[in-house]
Amino acid sequence: MEDWSGKVAIVTGASSGIGTAVAKSLVKHGVKVVGLARRKERMQEIASQLGKDKFYPVPCDLMKQDDIIRAFRWTEEKFGGVDILINNAGMVSTSPIIEASYEEYRRIIDTNLIGPAICAREFAKSNKKRKTRGHVFNINSIAGHYAEAIQIPLGMYGPSKYGLTALTAELRHEIIIAKLNIRVTSISPGAVHTDLIVNAMRWSPETAEKVAMLRDQDIADAVIYALGAPEGAEVYELTIIPQNKPIEVPVAP
User: Are 240 and 187 a contacting pair, CB within 8 Å?
Assistant: First the structure.
């Protein structure tokens, strides 16, 4: 990780959960973090906790291409470019596909798939311009690999994550062809104890504690692990599930 000290990372969905945990872990390793999210006030709180010149909040709605381009432009003007991209922002939906609206389809796909694609495109432009090494992370899900094993209705969430799995593969192919020095890692966790999933499933705090779930720091640690891989090695896919706890999945009322 010493090689990444002083480098710059963009973390999407940085205002809570996995995004906040990843941002804090990167800062601990000397990485400057530009946090993208809609909740600027929450990110400002994180910046205050971490100290001056470590975490930079930039308001951004991943469903708006102009917001993404503006955030990357700001980062380039401030730091010269981006070295690490963490595509973390995501939305969970429990609305059945056969009942959901078109707007619901777009909201999930735009956030979970189109947004990461735009971010990866802008990241590649930065890397190509500076001819530096880089690393892209797509925070995926086991729902993007094993949807048939998940009995909870997740609507368009699963399809969006299957798309992210394919996006990761396509990015790696294109990066090789373009001869860019960028590693690509997909991290696919099982359920992670964050407000996103707890609120989506309408679980009470007591119920959530009974469910076998990972913690956001588990995913942050996986990011640091993959970043620290030796030169010439690429951690392409990490699948992480909870260990040693009976799986109890309550049904939302």
Answer: yes
Instruction: Count CB neighbours of 198 within 10 A.
Output: 20
Among 102, 105, 157, 225, the active-site one is 157
Token pair 């995501």 in the structure block, residue: 90
Structure tokens that stand for 120 in this block: 């990866």
Please tell me the distance from the alpha carbon of residue 226 to that of residue 238, in angstroms, as a whole number. Answer: 9
Q: Which two tokens stand for residue 60?
A: 């951004």
CA distance linking residue 191 with residue 210, whole number of Å:
12
Q: Does the annotation count 146 as an active-site position?
A: no
Q: What would the pLDDT profile of 193-210 be if each residue is shown by its tens digit?
A: 776 666 666 666 666 666
Closest CA to 216 of 40, 1, 21: 21
**pLDDT > 70 fraction of the chain, expressed in percent and rounded:** 90
Contact criterion met (CB below 8 Å) for 132 and 179: no
Give the per-residue pLDDT at 203.
67
Whole-angstrom distance, CA of residue 57 vs CA of residue 3? 24
**DSSP track, the chain:** -GGGTT-EEEEETTTSHHHHHHHHHHHHTT-EEEEEES-HHHHHHHHHHH-TTTEEEEE--TT-HHHHHHHHHHHHHHHSS-SEEEE-------S-TTT--HHHHHHHHIIIIIHHHHHHHHHHHHHHHHT--EEEEEE--GGGT-GGG--S--TTHHHHHHHHHHHHHHHHHHHHHHT--EEEEEEEES-B-SHHHHHHHT--HHHHHHS--B-HHHHHHHHHHHHTPPTT----EEEE---SS----PPP-
Looking at residue 21, its pLDDT comes to 96
State the Cα–Cα distance between residues 24 and 54, nearest whole angstrom: 9
